[in-house]
Every structure is written in structure tokens, then in C-alpha cells.
Amino acid sequence: MITPRSFVKIYHALTYRDRVIAFVLSIIALGALLFWIGAAYVISTKAVADFGGEYREGIASQPRYINPIIAQTSEADQDLVQLIYSSLFTYDANGKLVKSLAADYKMEDEGRRYVVTLKQGVKFHDGEELTAEDVLYTVQAIQDPSYKSPLRANWLSVEAQVIDQYTIAFTLKKAYFGFLENLTVGILPKHIWEAVTPDKFLLSDYNLSPIGSGPYQYYNLEKDSSGNILSIELRSFKSYFEGEAYIPKFIFSFYPDQETLLAAYAKKEVLGIHSIAPGEEAEVRNLKSTTVYEIAIPRIFSVFVNTIKSKPLAFDEVRKALSYGTDREAIIREVLLGKGAPATSALLPFMDGFASDIETPHFDQAKANVILDEAGWKKGDDGIRSKDDTPLEIELTLPEWPEIQKTAEILKSQWEVLGVRVNLNQLSASDLQKNAVKNREYQALLFGQAAMLESDPYSFWHSSQKADPGLNLALFDNKDADQILEGMREELNPEARIGQYKAFQEILAQENPSIFLYSPTYLYVVNGTVKGVDVKRINNPAHRLSNAHRWFIDTKRVFKKGE
Fold first, then answer.
1. In sequence order, what are the residues at sequence separation of 6 or more whose Cβ sits closer than 8 angstroms to the Cβ of residue 433?
2. CATH tag, 54-292+540-555
């Protein structure tokens, strides 16, 4: 029988050399044993998200109203609202609507009435329960012009009614397929805001120390000696109805400009950047542990033509030739450094309802010249075309934004090859809005518009929207298109809307009311230590944060089950 004493006798019987060899072999055997134990542990377990860490993101902006019904004019405000407030519906990683505060809903009266049942037990950050009364208060505040909510136009024909503590009904004058999008607005706590009169609403301290029911709650803010907000710290809300966020601290740092923000990221003062321009991507990608997420967003840049102010643009063949004479890929390559998608219609390939089987104008310079030649637009000695003593000359109005300015210069060179004289009229953002867009005082306008993934083109293309504050910048007026757009709004069957979308896009392809150009890709920078960022399509930059409570930095290992 081998006993410990036996091992001692054997050890003493060994020479010094043999003892060393035995010791080394023992260490190797122990190391191998530990290795295989570790390997078996790794094989039988997997890494999953764990609680811990801190995430700090930078943005070149200042917060002012962290309030869901007035935050629409500030990206900083919208980002904070996305994390602090919750809504009846929100968006998943593909930009699809999903229930959030809403436990369920049903449509009645052929789509003119929506009855929404709330989840029970949802708490605001101060511990009070969220009920249908809070939803009603939020909607009525939006509808009241005294509160100056930019969302008011979406709620003018809607009546909200509390059915019981956890049920609210919305009655519309007409059925509208996109109504649920309205229910993505954050819900205000009535017990706090009802004491604030409309004249004090914008001045309330709660706009900078908000109380919501979202995954993160306001903790504190830091200001400099001039009163500028340097940072706002949020802490995870442990009673969040969808589960506590993995990252306990979510901090936003605010910078005066993009250059300062990029420098802060390079020094690791922040782990993320709200957004970057394509020209800044190479700089951040060279930094260690950087991930740049390329996210599709339905922002379409186009040249909107005003046929009332420009005689040449009133000719169908001119608009058609300009569209064929536009090399969109070259613009995306030179202006966006390849970070964008070409646009040839009011819908983009990644938007719901896009018709891929319609022939839309593509770059064909030879065809553009033939179109003009056959229509009688002849080139003069100066290379500029004219017809019936009308020179083919266009004034292109644009904002003083670097990417837009570069786009305009490329368009000018591309169109001048066709025999078009292009004069650029650059205006500041405020002058553009006041002196051009508002009064429709332009021949052609190079501008961008923010659409939705599930598009409702009515606001941009219906003839009733030609005058400000309507968004029909092309002053498009087509009875067939109007009829389609009106019918589409009331069509609740997604399959039926596909045919309406296609019919509308066919009219645009025939009429060419605008020269569609491109849609920039949204570039979001996050340090590689942050996991779980899986967003692919968004309607709004703030929606990239819609599942931020599932992001994580720390991990733990758990045993695999049934794998």
C-alpha cells in the first residue's frame, strides 16, 4: 500500500538531479491538468453580458430641453430623451415598430380607433406608477399650442380618452396606417408636470433634470463657469420594466465643435461619438479598439425644381436630361467617400415600399444629350444650349454646408457638360429658410429631407403641401399622385400599400419633379469594448439608442444548456 510516507522515502532516495527532474515534471503535469480543466470549462461555458462598466459618449451640441414633446430640434436632447423616457411603442434594430409600454393594442372602426393596453406596474424614476392618465396628459400637452410642441401637427385630428387605469383609446377622423409611429413619443409624468403652467413649461427645471420611466435616470450635470453644460450623467434605473441596464453609468459629454470632440475621443475622454462625417472616418478607425457602425437612415438629398421660377425647368425634357446627366455614384464617391446610397426616387432601396422593378433615370450622359438634342435645345458658340431664345440656365440655391457645397460643384460640372449654365447661390442656414424655402423663392434647391423607413410621402409630394409649412419643395402637383397618396394613408393592409407605393414611384419616374441624388450613411463610433450594438436601420439618430439597456461592457461565463 502506497502511503505519503512512501513518497517521502522515495524522494529522499533520489539524487539532487532526479529531484529537480521530478519537480519539473510535476509542475508540467500540474500545468497540463489546469490547462485541460480550463479548456473544459471554456468549452462547456459561454460568455454572456454582465452588469458593470461605464460608457461616456461625446456630442458637439448642447442640451436644452430633455423633454420628449419639445426635444425635436436638438440631437443632444433627443438622445437623452431616448434613454430617460419610455413610450408606448419603440423601434427594434431594423427600425421596425415594437411594443414597449404597450402590453397590447387593437384597431377598431376600420382603423379609426386604436385601443392600447398598458403594462401594469411600470414606475417613473421617482417611484410613482405610470398609468393611462400620464399618456393622456402627454398627448393633450402636445395638442395644446401653448406648449409649442413640434409634434402638434401629428395630433391635430386625434382624440385621446382614458378607458381605465391601464387602457387608453385614440380616435382618428380618418384611418391612417402610420398612426402607431406617433406613439413612439416619451410619456411625461402627469403628477410632476400638471403643476407647471404652459407659460412656464419651457423654463421648468425638469427640462434639465428630467424624470421619466426609461432605462436610465438623470443623476447630475456638470457646467463650466460660463454656464455651458459639460456633461450629464445618467444611472441605470433598477426598476425599469424591461430589466435593469447592463451598463450602470451612461454619461454624455458635450463639446463646442466636432474637432474638439474628435480630439477628446483620441485621448479616450469618451468611448463613443454621436456621429462623424465620412472624411473623419479614417482618423477614428486608426485608433485602437474603434468600431464604426454604418447605419441606414432615410435622409434623401435632392435638387428640388421650381417650374414657376424657372422657365427651362418647366420643360419635361430638361428635368429628365438633368436626371440622366447626374452621376450619383461619382458624388457619393467624392463627397461621401463611398458612405452612402444613390437615390433615384422618393424611396430608397432599404425603405419599405421601394419598387426595384421601375426604370428610373440612371447616369447616361449620352442619353441626356440625345434627349436635349431631340427636343430642340441647341448648343451655342459658348457651349450653352437654348430653345426659342430661352437659354438653358439655372440658379441652384443651397445651404453653406461643406458636403452640400461640394455636391453643388460636382453637379455644376456634370450639367455644364450637357450645355447647361449653372449659377450657384449659397445661403446661410437661416437665410435659406427665411428667404428661399419659406417663400419658395428658388429655381432649383439642393436640400435634404428626412423621411421614414415606412414611408408616408404625403407631406413631401401632395399638392396641398406646396406652401410653407408644407414640405413639397418641388411644388409637385399631380392629380393621380394626390389620389394615390390620399388612398395610401387610409390603407391599413401593408400588401395593398405596396402597389400604391409602386404606382406613385412610377409617376415620379415619368415626371421627374426632382433630381434625386443620394442618402448618406449614418456613421456611429463606439469603442470596441462596448458590445451589443446591433442597430442596422433607424428613422432618427436617437433611435440608435433604442436598445442601449442591452449593451454591455463586462461579461461572465455561464454553463451551456442543451447545446
1. none
2. 3.40.190.10
Task: Please write the tens of the pLDDT for every residue from 508-540.
Answer: 999 999 999 999 999 999 999 999 999 999 999
Contact 160, 154 (CB under 8 A): no
Q: Burial level of 310, CB count in 10 A (0-12/13-18/19+)?
A: middle
Return the C-alpha torsion angle 310, 312, 314, 318, nearest 10.
-140
pLDDT per residue as tens digits for the range 282-306 = 999 999 899 999 999 999 999 999 9
Mean pLDDT of 328-357: 96
- Given pLDDT bands bounded at 50, 70 and 90, which one contains residue 37? low
Share of the chain above pLDDT 90, in %: 89
Check residue 114 and report its DSSP letter.
Answer: E
Per-residue confidence (pLDDT) for residue 392, from 0 to 100: 98
**CA–CA gap between residue 346 and residue 182 (Å, rounded):** 22
Helix (DSSP H) and strand (DSSP E) numbers for the chain? 17, 24
- For 541, phi and psi rounded to 5 degrees? -50, -35
pTM of the shown model: 0.90
Q: How many CB atoms lie within 10 A of CB 469?
A: 9
Write out the three cell numbers for 423: 449659377
Instruction: Say how far apart CA 24 and CA 7 lie, in whole Å.
Output: 16
Distance CA 441, CA 389 (A): 24
With a CB cutoff of 8 Å and minimum separation 6, the contacts of 150 are 70, 72, 73
Round to whole Å and give the CA distance between 413 and 365.
Answer: 12
How confident is residue 181, by pLDDT bands cut at 50, 70 and 90? very high
Strands 421-427 and 113-118 come out as unpaired
* Domain layout of the chain by residue ranges: 4-48, 54-292+540-555, 299-520
* Residue 10 pLDDT: 64
Q: Does residue 7 register a pLDDT over 60? A: no
Which among 181, 161, 163, 162 is positioned nearest to 171, based on CA atoms? Answer: 161
Q: Which amino acid is located at 472 in the chain?
A: N
Q: DSSP label at 537?
A: B
Q: Tell me if 538 sits within 8 A of 544, measured CB to CB.
A: yes
Contact indicator for 322, 467 with CB cutoff of 8 Å: no
**Residue 343: count of CB within 10 angstroms of its CB:** 23
Task: Tell me if 411 sits within 8 A of 396, measured CB to CB.
Answer: yes
Contact between residue 186 and residue 86 where contact means Cβ atoms under 8 Å apart: yes
Strand partners, 396: 424, 444
- In angstroms, the CA 551 to CA 534 distance is 9
Close Cβ partners of 140 (under 8 Å, ≥ 6 residues apart) = 160
pLDDT tops 60 at residue 563: no
- The share of the chain scoring above pLDDT 70, in percent, equals 93
pLDDT at 388 over 90: yes
Q: Are 272 and 59 in contact (CB under 8 A)?
A: no
- Residue 282 and residue 460: Cα distance in Å, rounded? 35
* Unique residue bearing C-alpha cell 403594462: 119
Residue appearing with cell numbers 443623476: 219
Superfamily of domain 299-520: Dipeptide-binding Protein; Domain 3 (3.10.105.10)
